[in-house]
Structures are given as C-alpha cells and as structure tokens.
Request: fold
Amino acid sequence: MTFVAPRPADLADPLWPVGVAGVVYGGDYNPEQWPDEVWEQDAELMRQAGVNLVSVAIHSWVLLEPRPGEFDFGWLDRLLDLLHGAGVSVNLATPTVVPPAWLYRAHPEIRPVTRDGVVLERGSRATFCPSAPAYRRAAARIARAVGERYAAHPALAMWHVHNEYGAPVGACYCPESATAFRAWLRERHGSLEALNTAWGTTFWGQRYGDWDEVEPPRATATAGNPAQELDFLRFCSDELLACYRAERDVLREHSSAPVTTNFMTTNCKSVDYWRWGREVDVVANDHYLTAEADRNHIDLAMSADLTRAVAGGRPWMLMEHSTGAVNWQPRNIAKRPGELARNSLAHVARGADAVMFFQWRASRFGAEKFHSAMLPHSGTRSRVWRDVVRLGADLGSLAELRGSLVRADVAVVWDWESWWALELAWRPSVDLDYRERVAAFYEQLWDAHLTCDFVAPGQDLAGYRLVVAPSLYLTAPGTAAVFGRYVRDGGTLVVSYFSGIVDDNDAVHPGGHPGALREVLGLEVEEFLPLRAGERVSLSGGATGDVWAENLRPHGAETVLEYADGPAAGKPAVTRHRLGGGSAWYLSTRLRGDDLAGVLRGAYRDAGVEPADLPRDVEVVRRHGPDAEYLFVLNHTDVDARIEASGTELLTGGRCDGLLTVPAGTVAVLRTG
Amino acid sequence: MTFVAPRPADLADPLWPVGVAGVVYGGDYNPEQWPDEVWEQDAELMRQAGVNLVSVAIHSWVLLEPRPGEFDFGWLDRLLDLLHGAGVSVNLATPTVVPPAWLYRAHPEIRPVTRDGVVLERGSRATFCPSAPAYRRAAARIARAVGERYAAHPALAMWHVHNEYGAPVGACYCPESATAFRAWLRERHGSLEALNTAWGTTFWGQRYGDWDEVEPPRATATAGNPAQELDFLRFCSDELLACYRAERDVLREHSSAPVTTNFMTTNCKSVDYWRWGREVDVVANDHYLTAEADRNHIDLAMSADLTRAVAGGRPWMLMEHSTGAVNWQPRNIAKRPGELARNSLAHVARGADAVMFFQWRASRFGAEKFHSAMLPHSGTRSRVWRDVVRLGADLGSLAELRGSLVRADVAVVWDWESWWALELAWRPSVDLDYRERVAAFYEQLWDAHLTCDFVAPGQDLAGYRLVVAPSLYLTAPGTAAVFGRYVRDGGTLVVSYFSGIVDDNDAVHPGGHPGALREVLGLEVEEFLPLRAGERVSLSGGATGDVWAENLRPHGAETVLEYADGPAAGKPAVTRHRLGGGSAWYLSTRLRGDDLAGVLRGAYRDAGVEPADLPRDVEVVRRHGPDAEYLFVLNHTDVDARIEASGTELLTGGRCDGLLTVPAGTVAVLRTG
Amino acid sequence: MTFVAPRPADLADPLWPVGVAGVVYGGDYNPEQWPDEVWEQDAELMRQAGVNLVSVAIHSWVLLEPRPGEFDFGWLDRLLDLLHGAGVSVNLATPTVVPPAWLYRAHPEIRPVTRDGVVLERGSRATFCPSAPAYRRAAARIARAVGERYAAHPALAMWHVHNEYGAPVGACYCPESATAFRAWLRERHGSLEALNTAWGTTFWGQRYGDWDEVEPPRATATAGNPAQELDFLRFCSDELLACYRAERDVLREHSSAPVTTNFMTTNCKSVDYWRWGREVDVVANDHYLTAEADRNHIDLAMSADLTRAVAGGRPWMLMEHSTGAVNWQPRNIAKRPGELARNSLAHVARGADAVMFFQWRASRFGAEKFHSAMLPHSGTRSRVWRDVVRLGADLGSLAELRGSLVRADVAVVWDWESWWALELAWRPSVDLDYRERVAAFYEQLWDAHLTCDFVAPGQDLAGYRLVVAPSLYLTAPGTAAVFGRYVRDGGTLVVSYFSGIVDDNDAVHPGGHPGALREVLGLEVEEFLPLRAGERVSLSGGATGDVWAENLRPHGAETVLEYADGPAAGKPAVTRHRLGGGSAWYLSTRLRGDDLAGVLRGAYRDAGVEPADLPRDVEVVRRHGPDAEYLFVLNHTDVDARIEASGTELLTGGRCDGLLTVPAGTVAVLRTG
Reply:
C-alpha cells in the first residue's frame, strides 16, 4: 500500500481578515484605558512596528451601551477612523464577555453558580451563565448594534466574537442551567427511558420518573453518576457554542467579513473544539507558555498542531500570545532574548498566518497590569519594544508563505470526551492523566523531528503512516472500527493503557477490557494493576514503567517487552499485533523519555517513518505552498546549528547552498521549493 | 489472683441467617443492572462458586416504589423465586439508603446540609438528612411494604436494613436537624441550665437563655464550643441509630428473621458502634483494605477483633470486602494471588462465620464500575473467578467451626467518644491522632502473636491479664474507677499520653493532668510538651520518641525510662506504678516499632503474658468450639512456614502430626481439639 | 548635617491606668467560669504574685444583659469590690466581642458573611458584622450601661473596649456591609466618576453607572478589581475603627479613665494600626510567639518596636502574651524555663510599661482550656506559677523606669497598605511576601544590635541615620517625596525590590518602574525577572539571591554588586545612588542572612551607624528616663554573657563596675544614667 498525506489542494482557504496583506501582525488594543493623546502616539508606534491588525472593544460593552438600549459609539467611531487612517485594520469584538453592571442589577440570575452553590458575582470578567435568557437577549442586542454600525467601516477586517469561551468559568449549575440542561438532554436522548438507560440509573437507584427530577450534577454526598457528569460537560460546551453561534448569526445578517472567536486549544478542558472548528470562518487561538516548565516550546508546538487540526489543516491565526511574562501564573517568568521571535515563528511554522499579542500597551491599572505587552511600562526604551519592531519586519519578509500548508505522516488522536471521562471521580488511579499522556507521546515525536497532525476520534486515518492514541479511555464503536480498518489497510497504530474502556455513556464495553480495542490489539486485559505512588516496575530490556501495569493476555499479539518485576512480573508489558497489512502496538505501563522513545522506534520501523538526524532542540518544520516550500529552522539551543539545506533565507534575504547555519537562539526560514 | 478469659459458654448465639448451613458465602447482588437472561447465568455461577446468600435490593427503592405509595414488586418476586430455586438464600435490604428522585422533589428538605451551609443534592447515594420527618416517614413506608411482602418468602434468610449508616455523610446541619438536636439535648441534659453548665457557656459568653437559640455547630469565626461539638457528634450517631431502629421495628412486626445493618467498625468515625451492637440480631461488618498501606493485613485483623467486640464476642458476619481492587481510593491496588483467601480466612479466624463481598458481578456503568467483583469484567476466564470458586469450596470445608469463639487474655480499650473529642479543634498538637495510637499498640500485640479483644470504656476488665488504653483522652470517672479496681485486683494496665484528661463534656478533670488517672498511674503531668514537626527525643536505653513529651512528676510511680534530651531531659518518660496486686504503666511520648515493643515486653512480664515465638507475618489464631479447637495459620510471607501443631487440616483433609507446613501465602486450618 | 534622634521630651505621656503604680502586672481574668470560693483564692494568689491589674468582663455580655435591655450587674459589683479590697485594679471591658445568643435570634443579619457567601454563625467569638446597625446599637447600649455603672468604681483603672478587633474575622461581605461600603466610598471618592477613575473601571469593562451597582469584592470568576479590593480592605479596617470609636465615645461621656483596645501589631493584616494609634489613650498590644519558629524572640522584638511606633514612641501596654504554650497553633510548644521572663522583659526593654497575660487561671472548659495561664491546671505546685511570682517581684524592682523612652537611629518603614496591595491576586510572583521582607531586614538590624523604630510611609524621617523600606510596593507620591528630601538632606535609604510600583489606587506609576522611586534610586527597572521555585542566582562577591531579579538600568546609581548568572547576568543587582548629601541603596533580588548583612554593612558605613560588637542572641536595649538610663541585657543563649557596663542591676540590687555577667538564659537591667 502507499501512504498519501493530505495535500494542500484538498483544503479550501479560510476566510481571512479583509484587506490585510501578508502575515497578520498586531494585538489586543484597549484604548479606552488611555486619554486620546495616547491614541495618536499608538497609531504612530503601530506603524513603526508593522502592525496591521488590532483587536478592539473586547471589554467595552458598558462603554458602548452605558444604559440598557442606549448606545454611545462616538469614541469607537473616532478610534476606527484613526486606525484606518494609520493603515491599521480592526478585528472588532462583540463585547459580550463582560456584561455591564446594570445587567446584573436588572437580572441577578445571569450570575453563574458553582457546583457547591456559590454564586459568582461580577467584578472580574466572564462571569455569566450562558444559559440565562436575559444574558442571551442582551448579548444579541449589543452584537446587533455593533454589527449594524461597523459592518461597512473601512477599518473593519473581521469580527471577534466574545473572548475565550469556556474560561475561567466553564460550567454553571444554576436553575436556568438546569432548565437548559433538560432541554439539551431531551434533544440528545429523545425520551426519559432512553436517558435512564444511557445513564445507567439502575445503579444506586437513581432512576428518573419525570424530566423535572433531572438536575446538573451538583455537590452530592459522594461520587455522582458519571454519565450525567459527562453529558453535563458536553452540555456546557454546547451552551457556549450556542452563545457563539447566536452572535455570529447576528453579525452575518450585516456583514460578510470573517467571524471568529479565540480558542485555547490544548489548555481549555471545558470546550470541545472539534465541534467548534467548523463554526468559525477562520480558527484563532490563544497560547501562553507554562512559564516555569522546562522546554515549553514543545507544548507550544503541540498547541499549534492541535490548532491546525481544529482548523481542518488550513492556516489559522495566533490571536494572543505574550511578548514576555504573563501575570496569572504562580511565577511569571519573563521571556529570554530571542524567545519572543522563536515562539512567534514556531506558530507560523506550524500553520499560523497571523501573529498577535495580548496586548498592545501595558495597562496601568486593573488585574492585568503586570502582563507584558508589545509596548511595556518602560515604553520604547526597552529590549521588548525593539524585539517587537524587529519581529514586525521579519513577518513582513514572510508575506509570501501566507496560505501555505503543513503536511504530516504521523497523527495523534486528541479527544476532549476521553479527557473529560478519564478524569471523572473514582477511576482506578488518580495518577491517570489524559493530557500528560498525550504530551508525553507528542514530546517523543517532536524530539524525533517528526511533524504530526492531530486527529479527532473517528476521523478517517488514510494517508497517515503512524497513528498514536494515548489514553483514549472513551472509545466509541465507530472509532474502534476506524482503527481496525486503518491497521488492516497497512497502518501502524500505537495505543497506550486505559484506552478503549468505555462507550459514549461511560459504560464499560462488554466482554473484558479494552472492550473496544481487544480485537485490533489482539489481547485482553484481565485486571488493571495500578501502581503505588512512586512505585516503579522494570521491563525486559531495561525500561522502567510507573503509575500503571496490567495483567494482560495476548490473543494474537506478540510480546515486545515483558514485566521483569512488580505485580505483573513475567507478563507482557508492550505488545505488537500484526493485523492485515499493518500492526497495532500496545503499551500497558507508563513509559517516559528514552524508554518511550525506544518502544516508538519499533513502531516507526513498522510505519516506515524515519526520525530526522538533527540536534536536540533544533526544530525543523516545512510549509508547502503551491509554488514553493518553506523550511523553518528554530534553534532553541545556545549553540549554533548547522543543517543541510539550500535556498533563500527569507528573513535576511541571503542565499544558502548546502549548509545552513542558524545561530544560537535564532530562526531561519528558507524558501526551498 | 487468677485470670479467667471469657468462655464460649457465657455467650448466647446471635440470630443467624435462616436456612443457611455452614459458613455463609456470597455478596451484594444487583440484578436490576442486568437483563433477565443474565440472572439465570448468575444463579448457575453462584452454584458453581458455592454461594449460599446474596444481599439484594439495597439500592432499589425507586424500582420498588416508582411513584409515591405505588409499589412494583414483580421483578423482585421473580428474582427471589429464581434464587430460591437455585438454593441461594437472600439477605433482603430495606432500600432506604437512596431515596427516589420523586421524594427529593416533593421534600427538598431531606437534602443534607454541610457545616458551611452547602446543600448536598441527590445524584450519588446516602444523601439524606436523618432527622427529616419526610425521610423517616417514607423510609418506614417502604420498609413496611418490603417486610410485609417478603417475610414469608422461602428465600428470605435475613434483613439488611439500609446500608453503611454514617458514610459518606455523617452529619447534617439543616434546620430540621437543629430541631431534632434540641429535642435530643433536652433529653440528655434535662434543663437549659444543665446544658449551660455541661457546655461551659460562661466561656466566651455563650450562655443560652432559650432552647431556640441552640443550633448545630455550624461554621463560625473560629473554634466552636467543644462540648457542643461533642454532643452534636453523639446526636448524629443517635439519629442514625433511630433511623435503623425504626426500620427494624417495622420489620419485626412481620418477621422473626434476623435483622442487621452493615457496620464499618474501625473506619467509620461518625458512628459509635458500642451503642449499635446491642440493636442488631447479628453484627455485620464491611472491611476494605487501605490498598497502598504496608502490612494492611494487620489493620484487617484489628477490624475483625473490634467487630467481634461490638458483637459481644459472638460470631459475626463479614458483609462486604473485596475480591480485588476497590475504586474509591487514590490508587486502587489489586490484590495479589492468595491475598483474597488470606483476607477472607483471617476474618473467619477472628470470629466471622460469614464471608461476603461487594459485589457479585462487576457493574458496567455507574460510579463503581471499576470496583472488583466475584465475577469481574473479564468473566469466568479470570484468576479472580477461579479464586472465588476455590474459596467457596474452602469455606465449605470449614462448616463445622460455625459458632466457635475466640478467646483473649489481652484487651485494648476502643472509644469513639475519645476519638471524637481528641480530634476537635485546638488541641495541644495537631499530631495527636487517636486511631494512629490504637493501631500502633495493636500492631505490637499482633506482632507478638497475642490475640486480643477490644473493650468499651467502663466495661468490666476482670479476666484480662493485660489491658491497653491508648490516647483515652476522654475518661469518665466510672471508666477510671474500673481501671483502678482492675489494677488493684492484679491487672496490668498500659496507658499512653493524653489519656484521662477530660470528662464527658470535654471539661478538664480538676487538680492537674491526667485528672481521671493520676491516682492509678501514680503521677501528675505538670505541663504538656508537644514536640515540633519532625522533632525527636531520646530516652534512656536508646528508644526514640516524637510528637509529644511531658513534664511529669511521679507520686508513687517508678521511672522505667527517662528523657535523655529534649524539653523534658532528665524527667521520667515511661513509668510503672505498682498498685494493689497489679501495675499501671504510662508512656508519655510517642513510641513506635521496636521501641514500643521494648516497653511492652516489661508490661507482658508483669501481666504474665507470653508472646509466641513465631515468624514475623505468620498469623496464628484459635477458635474454640464446644468439642474442638481450630488453629488458623495464615502465612502472609513469601516463604513457607513451619509451625508445631497436630490435628486435621480442614482445607485439605490431611492429617498433621507435630509439624505443620504452611506454604508461602497460604492458610491452614487445623482441628486440634 | 547632624542627626537628631527623637527625644523623650518631645513625647507627651499616654494616659495610664488610674491608680496603678510602677509597672503594670496582671492578665485576663474570667471569674464567671468559677464558683465564688475560687474568687477569694484568686485574690489572695494575685497578691502573692504582685498582680496589680486584671482585665475583666471581656466575654460577659450575656451575663450582664441576659435579656435585651435587662441588666444583671450583681456578680460584677461583687467582683470589683473584692478585687478593690485585694488591691487589684480593673481594666474593665465593654463585652461587645461576643453578642448574646438572643441578639442573633432577633437580628440574624448581624452574622458575617464570607467572600464565598458562607454565613458564619455564632458559637465561637467575634462573629459579627461590624456594619450591621443592629449590632452597633446593641453594642452602644451595653457599653453605656457598663460605663455608667462602673465609671466611679474605685477599682476601675481603665477601659478595655471589645477585644482584638480584626481577628479572626476581618471582613464581611453581607448586604449591610455593601451599604456601608458604598457610603464609605462616597466619602472617599466624592463622585461615582471619581470612583470609576480611581478603580480604573475602563479595564475589563467594569464601569459603574449607579452607586447601587457597587458591591464588596465577592467571589467572582477570576481576579477582581485590585483597587476595589484595596478600598474594601481600607473600609474593613475603618468599619472596625468606627465600632471602637463609638464605644469609646460612649465611655468618655461617663469617665475620664483611659480607654484602649488590644492590638496585634505585627500579626493582624486586616487592621491599619497607623490609623488606630491616635484613637486610643494608651496603646495596648497582644503578642504571641510563633511557637515552632526558630529564634522567635526576634519576632517578639519586632512586634514591640512596631507597637512603640504605633504609640508614637510613648510607653505602651503589653496586654496579652502567654506564660507558656498557646492552644491554637498547630503544635503548641511550651516555653522553656527562663523564656517567660526573657519574653516579658524584652517587651519592657522596648517600651512596654505593662506586662499582662492571657490569662490568669486556666479554663477547665471551652475552646481555650489548653492555653497556658499564670495559674495552670496543676495550680501553684508548678514551675510556671513560681516563675509568675518571680516575674511579679522583678517587675516591682523596675518601677522607676516607668515612662522612660527608647531612642533609635535607624527606622524601618512599615505599611499595611503595601502589605495588602502587594499580596492581592496576580502579582508577578507568588513568592513576593511583604512581611517576610520586613522581617528579614529587621532580623539583620537585630543581629547587628541596632535598635530601630518603625515609621509610617510619609512620616518625617529627619533624625534617622538610616531608613529601610522593604517591599514598599504601594508608594504614594508624598511618600516618595519624603524619601527624596531625606536622602538629599544626608540620609541613607535602603529599598528592596518591588517598591515604588503603584499609587494609592494600585495603579502603576507612569514612566517605567519603580515609578515613585526612579529618581531617588537613580535607576529604572526595564523588566521584572521573577525566578522559578527554588531557583537561585549568584551575585558578584559570592552572594546568592532567589525569588526575584530585575533587568535594571542605572541612571546615576553605581553598581555595588552585579548578577553573575541567571536571567540578569552581567546587570546590576545591588546599586547605590549618591544624591545630595545622602545615598539610596537598592536591592533587586532577595538576599538573606549573611548576604543581606554584607550589603547592609555598606549602608551602615554610609549612615555612620555602628553595629555593636556583642555575642549573637544577646539582646541589648536602652530606655532613657529624665534622670537615668536603663540598659537591658537579655541573654537568649545557653552560655553566660559578659558585657562591658557599669551601674546598679535593678533585679538583684547589685552593683556592677565595668563588666556585667548575665547568666545563660537570664536578663539584667542596669541603671546606668
């Protein structure tokens, strides 16, 4: 068989900010915090930095609608005129993330309620119940007013609905949410009888006799019904999506400019972005480093790859990241010189055609005044400002790669529903951690210099040489069928422990674990053997596992590594099942680092995938355009890197023949096509 | 003087499951989770496993009473007929632990409220206010309906009221509880004046002028009134007991079968089982290992011994334990091969005549689907199933020992009230830990192969050679008097620090610590000297203490060990007071392991108690029948053990003369009488 | 220029307990907990101990007013007569810290509410909303009744209003508090427009259109408005102060005896004592050691010095400390022999003219029964009692120093507002810790045997040779101006990182950090560089910093030490700016111990301040009277200390010429004037 990676030609272009040429550059801009004279200064400095798009009015509801139904657009008219005059386009927000104080007074029921019954009050941001009709009505009104007024403004490039749906509050347990939850459940399950079956209410005598008995999973004496919890998580994501869709549809009545909202793909557990990607005209993402973490550029790459997947492979926008430290982590480590450019261009390398920041100018007051900005408190007399100007120029040099695509032979399955379900109460071990496992496998692929896609469960896998499914606890029969076809057709599949266990309702697949994957993996897990805190097991060949082991019985799978000690001593630990033209690997314990790399090398061989022979922490990614190919080399190390490559280096305009030197901490972009 | 251990003849038999011969074997059975065809399969598999009793309908309220006052018994009729036909008897529950959803809608006041005012909603289990009249009325109605219908069913062997009273919610602070608390207090204290005195309300100006001012100890600014807290804990235990008694009395109107409810003796702080033991016809206990703990078979033995004590020395039922991992601990470690049998037979060795599990068949859905079962997810193709069948056969071989008793020369005082009071707020050190101290002394006795009883405070101690009272913080004058008589009559008493400090109302006994025990111990504690976190003190002879020290002044006691350093350097640390014919030992610091063993050896000599010379972790216990004695040898090690003994080994039927070999990890039971 | 330390003559005497000669000695006395026969005993024992003042009726509201408006003073009349007869004066409380149960029933709205909405119930103490009109009315009524009845009683020496305002509850978020908060804000800001500006409500769209929209900063989705939080903290302190003032003014209608309330200067974050000091006739303070902490006598000294500052340099009263262990810390370590006397006399050395304890006699019941007392549970047969009697005699020998004052050349800036603001949400690092930094600098001064004053921000600094401003995050322009004048006039200023950042509204000073101090320090901080948990940076000269670093650019300052590694490698770490006649030092990283001492030695040289050459942990302080000087030498070590000094040792009456020997663990007081 032959593998065919997805080709650019298969992918329609996303809608793109109207009137913005080249790579988009800019950030959130909150001029309402500053006197008018600063606006003029800002426009001039934006020009110096090469900014071509700013996001405005995100938190301006009360300024635009100071009293119910009374609008004041004067300041925003002035601002858009000024920006247009300065050649800066506008990504205009519907300011619905912070309702005005008057709306809370008139409708206290829009306040969200926690699982324990704590009513959250206004005073910060994003404090609203997405199911409250009063909130939805008021949000639609302001969105309509903004849409009507600015649809035709020449500065308008696109619409930014709301802000970061799903954070910091992802769920509301109030009575209005209960009503909406019941309606959502009727839609999903059809009848109360079906709900009783889906939720397994014969367990612990929880059977419902009337729809009005159904409530959100509020605080209760001990572990609640997991199917109820899981449906509630789906409902929460869907309620936010309904909010988004309502505002988007209002805007579309007036405007053909693209509509989006900013995601936080790898870091927002409460929203299932697979269901959101198709609802935006262009995918936009916010990404912030976990500042204290080691090698956090790998997490950045994972975020970028997942964002590209949510965008269906099409170019996307980096809507927010930071020039330096944020202010909401425990210790807000500043970025080192060079890091800002490497971070920015790493996103571009993985499909971003926009590089934007929170925020243009650092606030003097409020909760985010210690968040970095393009223009820091120390102003233009600062390294950060100089780096921002330099980055603007660099992005200008990369204009031609806009619209080019990233290809991958390897895919990793990402699944919000498995994440949710796996981390509900009363699992076999508190050390089971969905995101940790995905990140561990991703890290190995990154270290092997293998570019990878993310795929949704059940998505067609044809064209990938290798597919990795980490901790896919919830595996619907359809997803399992796709894996089976994929392997039989010659694919290589790698599955980690605690995958394939339950169906859509968190019910264990019948017949022995892993019910959905027994056949494709050629084995049965007779008993889970969670390990003690800190306990380690040795494997044949010297590897070490922790967290988890299993008593597994192969039915066709061959043993690759076995347990040398621990509760499964002498039993298979890692197996490989040849099935049809392909093979399915299974890892029954938690491997990390070199031990995990060692096992994966076997899978790479099966898949015909070749890790690149490149220095550690030198990141190499390609974008493919219709006429050219672009090679990004990001040197995250503190020594110069030498790479075999030829072409034109776009940032410097220099020509490279055969050997490219990328100085320590810097980035090169070669047109090689 | 001579010591006389309690003799079997003194003990009346408990009521026992009707029609179940030999040792009881079985588990919780929840057929409502499965289609009817599985029921037939289950009956056949129960036969194969030797199951003779199953607990049913524990969570079936809403199925039996789908609408208020409308009953549907069809499915339960069918089930009981089927089981009876298969030779399996039924332990039939009153399903009152999970009220139907309709009861919550009609009576939201049955929801319990936490100390902080959080209302707990239905959605899990055991989420009800035991003082709510609406709950009590509805519980009595369903108990009556079940009692009437099944009293005469031939499958009925006994009644299982409710489930695990006291967990996971042990207290409710709602207004209905407040009303009931006031009534309880009137009963206890008689007058408001007496309440004011008992609670010491002159402290912090808390005097009550009206009964309606009295409330449960809800969240307040800082530490509350400890006497109020203590009475509230008593009230909570009594309210649950009142719930139990009401249901039991309803059943007794219709049936003479034994009535019980399942305890969790060593692990449920919220219920004072000394007050419950006399209210059940047979004591039943649930025990689950702390899976990650080292040598957790000692904790199991402690639980079994305390259960036997609660049963007044009579045989009891192990109502729930697990075949493997549970699902509610942080890391649910599976049992190793052999452990299931050792655990089961250790309970039998210490007086259990029933071995039952939660649960017969693993659930596919709900919160407990990862809890092990007799029939696991992998079905009969599993080691666990094979071990379950084997255990059934083994218990069959032990039928003759039913009714035999355990004798002990040593007793440990266990006291829920001291546990409660010692761990209230604002004690001298947060490192004071009631259960830790009891377990530490118990471990020493277990390691010395000394079988021990537990006794309630104030219980007659005649017949015991040695009595240990760990951390008996709350010591009523009557309890102190019993200790005095016991020692004067020749007994040996061992008391640990922070005993004898307060009376029933948590008031310090006057005249210097330990007020209730100064005389029997022959000393006064001038000042408590709690130690810093991690601080250790050396004692003469090389022992090391931590957590606690004291400035104590002997008045008659001799110094056994003194402090070599630390805040009490040069003062007595361990003392011994000869009083009448006996002696009273006092340990003023926390000793563990060999250091504690060393001190206890002195007490053993005083008591004429001889530790057995047996290998570590080989557990030896005897049961005494009217005609024979049964020697249990449980080998918890991984090497074979050889014990001098003669008789018939009941599990194999083999004969042993002089030397019994018990292979690593296995159990032998010898008829030696 | 010349330095002039504040002179005694500048300081008016505080009002002092009427009729109490010499140093005040005594404690809290709660006779209502004991039968009358104990009262007689107590009076006799007080005489033996030299007690001359006791605080009574602190928790007696319900006893004095058993029903609304009905008073029962009989027992208190008897008590005061008895005490007067025994020569013991009375510090009589308004018993408003614990409202009677009947007030809660009649006015449930007096219960405080937490940020999360939890209603705190009565049951402990100090559980009231200071803004509730019902509470204030009832408090005024009982204060008036007590004032009227006892103003003329001969035992009355002073008034003790309430108890420990601000603990354990410092804030209430109820609707009554919201109403009061709005009134307070109108007073502070004048107009809603001014409030919007001060709070920066253009950030996150939080603008107010109506006063009724303003609420306390209750639980919200994420970080709230920091200016709102800061104003709420000010409001909470002011509401408590209003409670105090109302009661004081009621008392003053009837009595000219001094009125006070007990502070907890260094340990109560919720109250800004700078605003309280001027409102009491004599400053009274409660101090409790952090029992487990190493060298906690330094914290004691800091508390005493801050209390003296709050008292404007005048003598003050130690209203509560403990004879031994308290009962509310995790591990309540008892005091070692000698510690009680050293603690007591250390307070006297630093300006206290009263030494009082919580409590006279240990309670038998209630939440504080394990708190130590002058008369412990073991009564007079105890070391503690003997030490109490000895201390009474010692204080008698020191009568002549009453009214003498302490002088210092060094001052440390203490600021509750910086403490509040620095520790609000979303600062650059969670490791920023206001109190830790103050204590770290204080410890260095203590170790250098330099007596120091505390000063409020903005207070005139003339007369001090050296001023230290640790973590003065909130620096108003006026405060900065004082620093500028001080340095230009020849002073030496030491400032630590994260000082001078924001104004009164937590808004960043414009123009680059540290906005308020750029000029005086001669530098700009371009970027904060918080360090990772546990990360350390090396400085030139071998010092090591952690927690924090900065990218700073000198504008006039010279580099004293530079970073040798870490994110600021090669940049200045410690700088010194010569300005006018003085110098301003800046420490941009967290230094401790010897590293901090090393830097400070440079500042001492600039300031002309000379650390004394004395053994470590030998504390030497002087009090200055009009005719004599008193040298306190407190030997906290376990070896004898020899000090060059001459004079009369007041405790022994002995004469010392040239060399004073202070035995290990003891104190000497020399009249040297």
